[in-house]
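Contributing: when you submit paired examples, paste them exactly as shown. First protein:
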Amino acid sequence: MPRFRLIVEYDGTPYVGWQRQDNGPSVQGALEAAVLSLTGETVSIRGAGRTDSGVHAKGQVIHLDLARSWLPYKLRNALNAHLGMAGERVSIIDADAVPDYFDARFSAMKRHYLYRIISRPAPLALEAGRAWWVPKPLDHTAMHAAAQMLVGHHDFTTFRSAHCQARSPVRTLDRLDVTRDGELIEIRASAQSFLHNQIRSFAGTLKLAGEGKMTPQDVRLALEARDRTACGPVAPPEGLYFLQVDYPAVIPERRGNEGQMDDGADLP
């Protein structure tokens, strides 16, 4: 069966999250319904990472198998038409044909996320639901200094949800940068995989650093405590965006479970 890789953008506001669930509409469900409407096929779509309710995506990657071959651009356009007719807030940005051993999840080398904070006294109008509004002033340089305490290979027990299903809390965080452009503060994180609520936990803790309530040393000690109570409050989902997934130029063929990483939590 031909396999296709799709890059997907979505507004997470009306969905219970990426994963198909019984308690409300999901992004996965919206895509599978569009495929069914277009082709008459019931498919199971795999995504590169799961996102929680309210979390957005600019570059989620999925793969699916179809009974017949399609020109990728025609598949993209046709699925977008069906998503539009269904009123979904999901768009397929690009599509291409891939080998049948490509796996959106397990072939991924690195995932990139963005967390947006708008720090200003006035509440948000245009950006409501698209960023975390923080009315207090934040020192982004202090936030960046604190963030560097978290970069590297660590046990991130402090920064993962109590409901995290990953077998190990150990991850390698390649990047955690904080920058500012006017009232907008951006936190960018990169790693092969993340734990459940890890980035939102980072954002909540870094906000405390920006308010002067935690120093970089405090953040390092919180990490070393391996204690969820040492973490700042978990930031709200609306500021988080799944930006991009990196894959090798040549996808290695998988044999059995070789190379499968423990990223089953992946709801950052």
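Second protein:
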Amino acid sequence: MKRHLDRCAITPYGREAGSSRVRVFEWLDRVGTNFTVGSYLSLPDASASRLLRHPVSVAGAELRLGAFVRARPRRLLLHREASPLSRGWWERRLLTSAEFAVYDFDDALQWDRGEGGLARRLAPKAAKAELAVRHADRVIAGNAVLADWASRFQRDVVIIPSCVALEDYTRKPAYVLRDPPRLGWIGSRHNEASLLLIADALTEVHRRTGARLTLVGTTTRSLGALESFIDRIAWSPASQRTALADMDIGLMPLPATTYNLGKCGYKLLQYAAAGLPAVASPLGVNADLLRQFDLPAPHTQDDWTAALLELIDSPQDARERLGRAARGVTARRYSYNAWLPRWAAALELGPVT
């Protein structure tokens, strides 16, 4: 590594992880400047089980963080955390080593206090996120909820939403219902259990209409009785590009937790990018997106059942109108093209090509 770095980006995951791809790699692909990137193990996540399988690589990743500190970058972007093992020391050292340091986060890390296994309790994210916000020169928050919290510890906070590249999604070509109707969901194995929140609604809609559920993510069966009408597709850039356009209605249920108040509504934006009408829990940013897209915002199982049946029973042109309107709003307000100048300005990169 060079003794002194010009531009540096640090993220805990590789490009296949949604958060790092959306908040770091997609932006770097669009700016006309070179960044040295440190992505810890470059894996889709940094779960304890993965770390235990790669002890030598973990040791190497920790050593590389020290090299980044010694290189004293002129511009530093730190996304979420530097190391899953750190209790804040790496984040503080990195942010204070740079001439100008920006901390970016897109989840309510401030309310993640290590619930779960031993590894998470040893390095909770809440205190680490607060420390990073305090030591950064500027903070980029994914939404107003996160920005309001960050503003308690940092005067310079800007909001830049998680954006989508519309060109990465096949636009839905037709709105005639599949036979049987096709409900859809996209995400990781860590959050697909949210579909169990609406299991009764999905089962009732399946009983009445024969609708099946397509899951784009993991191929591991984990949803009990729902699996009888689930078809699974492994996530890849190619499957993400095409699978949403083959669905009739997208789904985004969320448990009503404090942590989920900080979510950036990314699944809804993905569905919209494909021109797909969707139904989602009106929590946090979701509530605002649903209003902008004029889409259903159910609270109870009965609400979910009614919303899904109404969309299924709607005329083809009504679903098309909703899907195309959502795509238009996303292009204007939540695309990388719309936000690139402000992202580059937040990192003080100068004009972008």
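If you have annotations for the second protein, write them as plain sentences, like these:
The first strand starts at residue 7 and ends at 10.
Residues 316-333 form the longest helix (18 residues).
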